[in-house]
Each structure stands twice: as C-alpha cells, then as structure tokens.
Amino acid sequence: MKRILTPLRFQAGVQALGFIVTVMFAVMVRPLDADQKRDKEVQRVKSGRKTGELVPSFYVRAVTGPNRNKSICYVCRNGDRPVIMVLMRKTHDDLIPLLKRLDQVVDKNRANGLRCFGVLIHEEPSEATPIVQTMAFNSKIQVPLSVTTDVVSAPACQNLNPDADLTVVMYRDLRVVSTFGFDSVELKKNDVDRVMSGVEKLLKED
Hints:
Shape: globular
Largest sheet: 8 strands, mixed
C-alpha cells in the first residue's frame, strides 16, 4: 500500500530538510570565515600626535640595549636627532621583519644621527619583560626594546588610538614628521614597506 503524505507530514519533512541544509551550510562556511579572518588585511588607523606637534617625554624600563634594567627617557636621550619610535600593545612573529629592517636602516644611518627604540605597552610591565627579552634574543633584534604602562597612550602623552596595536612615530627636533597606526601587529610586507617609506622621508627632512 502506498503511503500518503498528509500536509502536516509534508511540512515536517520540509522543516527537517531545511534544518539539515542549514547545519551543512554552517559547517562549510565556518572554516571559510576563519580563513578569511586570518587573511584579513591589517587596517590602518589614525594614531599618535599630529604632524608638527611636540613629542612628549616619558620614562620606560629598558629591557634590552646598553641601558637594560634602567628607567630611561629615550625621547630625552635622543634629543633633536631623527628618531623612529615603535609603540606596541602586542607582539607577534609578523612584527619581526619590521624590527629587523629598522635595525638595518639605523645601522646604515647611525652617522646621520638616526635612532630607534621600541616600547611594549602592558598593564603589568614586569610580566611583559620576559616576552620582550625572548623576542629580542630569538630574533637578534638590536633596536633597544623597553616596557611601560598604558599611561603613554594618554592624549597628554603619545595620544594613541585605543584600536591601534601598533603605532610607529617618526620625529626630528622633537617634532612629529609622520605616524603609522595599525589595528594589528600581524603586518604584511606592504605594511612594512609603507613604514620604511616613512623612514626615507624622515631622513630627507632638514
């Protein structure tokens, strides 16, 4: 005997089929979303003081370099020289190529007075110290690295965008020449190239 589908049974079957399709679609799409998130371009954000503004001084705890384990103001120490200041809220392997290229450009232009320093901003600087030490040691980073609290982010200090995980400030004569803000430290090559073009501009400033 043939089984006759009543309207209620037919509707239930459609609903069940719809549920199965929805689940299959979710399973298929979820990995794609994850891949898209991983491949998402780093977004540039406005962060740091405006061009021409004075760079306020601030103290950090030096982790690497000749002044390690000391409280130091690199802004004060570098004076009116051309300086690259790297302010990080996080660390990542994708940040290493930028630091390595900054190492190279500083080494080539040391006679011209070019200086660079990096600062990891952390609510507990003592906890961030071993992170910075490991990164510098494993990647042979020569740029002096340091740690400090989020006080440096304040509008009265470096005026960092809360969404910026990385802010690179180029300055000379204690005045901002250019800034580069990114919402992630997972930089791509084009992001690094963009920052390095700013270094060229800094070196050409009189």
